[in-house]
Amino acid sequence: MTAEELQSLIKSHLPCEHITLEGDGRHWYATIVSAEFEGKRAIQRHQRVYATLGAKMHTDEVHALSMKTYTPTEWAALPR
């Protein structure tokens, strides 16, 4: 799976204001910003992202996904 394919899959099931992906085709690191994360704890945010992947995680197309998840307000407050 390519970064573009993974990004498209996540975006098709989760409205994202920002998403970046890095990885080697099986092991991925993502930064995801979505208003859907408002009021959710980190584990709930991660579960929401995993839900967008469906069987891709179970069939090992995506072996590992490490992520940082932010609301738009949290993202805007980060120093750059």
TrEMBL record:
Q: Which domain of life is it from?
A: Bacteria
**InterPro entries membership:** BolA, BolA-like_sf, BolA/IbaG_stress_morph_reg
Task: State the species of origin.
Answer: Rhodoferax koreensis
In its UniProt entry, what is this protein called?
BolA family transcriptional regulator
Pfam families from the entry?
A: BolA (PF01722)
Per the record, the similarity remark reads: Belongs to the BolA/IbaG family.
